[in-house]
UniProtKB/TrEMBL annotation:
SMART domains in the record: AAA
Organism this protein belongs to: Paenibacillus aceti
Cross-referenced InterPro entries: AAA+_ATPase, ABC_transporter-like_ATP-bd, P-loop_NTPase
Taxonomic superkingdom: Bacteria
Similarity comment: Belongs to the ABC transporter superfamily.
PROSITE patterns: ABC_TRANSPORTER_2
PANTHER family per record: ABC TRANSPORTER, ATP-BINDING PROTEIN
Alphabetically ordered keywords of this record: ATP-binding, Nucleotide-binding, Transport
Designated name of the protein: ABC transporter domain-containing protein
Length: 334
């Protein structure tokens, strides 16, 4: 093997698995994805997060060569999907949010079918299918017809289906949709361990920040076709802290609109929101007040004056709820 070949193979290994440069997609006057720049490194688990209609699926379709960018470029495993869709397809496994299987055929048959479509010999297909059914935890159901599978089992089978061609990158569109909390936890753990064991690059699209952050190395926050922030949870939190605002969390026996309005009138209060993932605390209601300075005593006074029964008050660092709220609902609305 000549030096130049060796160099170029090493260069390819060093290249990010996914490179998006000024990637843009317009439908008529509407821009669904606007000049997206993003690198995803090999072996990384990346979460593409955003509310409905943010442009996540459109981005994925451009990455797969299933829709053409209006401008800009994507390179997936070194290939441009707009020109080399087949080469990209060979290296990338895609699990859409509504994967179709042959419902009247067994899980094993479905996997063997996919493997055969990808040019894998029948013996190899069988052995890979059995290994993957084992890994995804549904081996005992391999002879069951897929039509009888639960949503969680289908998603596990979907993972096995994308993995059967030994992809370098897997793209999972809302993989946890419609699965119960325990099933979500198990599925995410499975994705995480598959990625770690095999050095797989994973792109996961979701609108559940809480779920995704459990396994993602980095997340990108996508709003109205634009990537408004990108990084690990800690650095996103630090960016918000650097903006100089202070978060005060309060717990009250009752939270009323009148109380919220009184707090909003305090000079220096920037934003107030109820904690979105307050897990049904029955003792008190939790809210976060974003201020441009430390307004702890003014807030306490206002709550006490309104007889709302202040149960607790503390200054807090930015957590996931705050990141979600500040980036998606405040910045996204600008
Ligand atoms: N073929 C199309 N023609 C016109 N507009 C489209 C088309 N496909 C998508 N859009 C629009 O582009 C925007 C982004 O859609 P996309 O499906 O990429 O969002 P998403 O982030 O995946 O949302 P969701 O979480 O709801 O799946 C939406 O406003 C959608 O209506």
């Amino acid at each position: 093997m000549g030096t130049s070949v060796v160099t170029s193979i090493h260069a390819a290994q060093d290249q990010p698995a996914v490179q998006l440069v000024d990637l843009t997609k317009s439908y008529g006057d509407y821009t669904a994805v606007h000049q997206l720049n993003l690198n995803i490194h090999r072996g990384e688990i990346f979460g593409l997060l955003g509310p409905n209609g943010a442009g996540k699926t459109t981005t994925i379709l451009m990455m797969l060569g299933l829709t053409e960018p209006s401008s800009g470029q994507a390179r997936i495993c070194g290939f441009d999907p707009a020109r080399n869709a087949l080469k990209v397809k060979r290296r990338v496994g895609y699990l859409p949010d509504d994967i179709g299987f042959y419902e009247d055929r067994t899980a094993l048959d479905n996997l063997i079918y996919t493997a055969r479509l990808n040019g894998i010999s029948i013996d190899e297909a069988k052995s890979r299918a059995e290994i993957l059914l084992e890994k995804t935890g549904i081996v005992e159901h391999m002879h069951k017809k897929v039509g009888a599978f639960s949503r969680g089992m289908r998603q596990r089978l979907g993972l096995a289906d994308v993995l059967i061609k030994n992809p370098e990158v897997i793209i999972l569109d809302e993989p946890t949709l419609g699965i119960d909390p325990e099933g979500v936890r198990e599925l995410l753990q499975l994705i995480s361990s598959l990625s770690r064991d095999q050095g797989l690059t994973v792109l996961l699209s979701s609108h559940h920040l809480h779920q995704v952050q459990q396994i993602c190395d980095r997340v990108g926050l996508f709003v109205q076709g634009k990537l408004i922030a990108c990084g690990d949870i800690q650095s996103l939190s630090n960016q918000l802290n650097d903006e100089g605002s202070i978060n005060i969390e309060v717990g009250t026996a009752v939270w009323t609109e009148a109380l919220q309005a009184s707090i909003a009138q305090i000079e220096g209060v920037l934003d107030i929101y109820r904690n979105p993932d307050d897990k049904g605390n029955e003792e008190y209601d939790l809210a976060t007040i974003v201020c441009d300075r430390d307004l702890t005593s003014q807030i306490a006074e206002t709550i006490i004056r309104s007889h709302a029964n202040l149960v607790y008050l503390r200054r807090k660092d930015y957590g996931l709820d705050d990141i979600y709220h500040r980036y998606f609902e405040r910045k996204g609305a600008r």
